[in-house]
Here is the input.
Amino acid sequence: MKIRFPFVLALVTLVLAGCGQKDSAPAVGGTAAAPAPASGPRVVEITAGVGDQMKYSLNTIEAKAGEQITVTLTNAGTLPKEVMGHNWVLLKAGSDAAGFSAAAAVAKDTDYIPPALKDQVIASIGTLGPRKSGEVTFTAPAAGEYPFLCSFPAHYAVGMKGTLIVK
Ligand code: CO
Here is the structure.
């Protein structure tokens, strides 16, 4: 609830503006970089497994605190899910992504999200087989750096990881 407040405020501002309040409230229009609710969340597209390689198409996502973001993940590979699945897991700032990966490797029953560490997860897209896509929408948290990774066994170690940088 608390995180969504700026978004709600922006909506209210938009409604007020639409009711012809522009002239009586000029200061509102001066707010910089207000999100555009009408267009919905910003979509960030990530492709994994091009050429059946253990890679994401991007390793850095930049965002503004409070921004709504939809991450889409597409597994462009051809190998079976059991041997080359890909997921996307965003962790809280300061999380030990390597430790998360190690624990996830033996958490197949919970789709590679280790139950003991699930409170570190901000948002995730479940493991995808070849030619499958998934998505998740979340609110960008406070300014900081948030690690993300593919928690399928061994993929973090070869570089399926990145950082969400919130400013
Ligand atoms: Co992967």
User: Anything to note?
Assistant: The first helix runs from residue 5 to 18. The chain has one domain: 25-166.
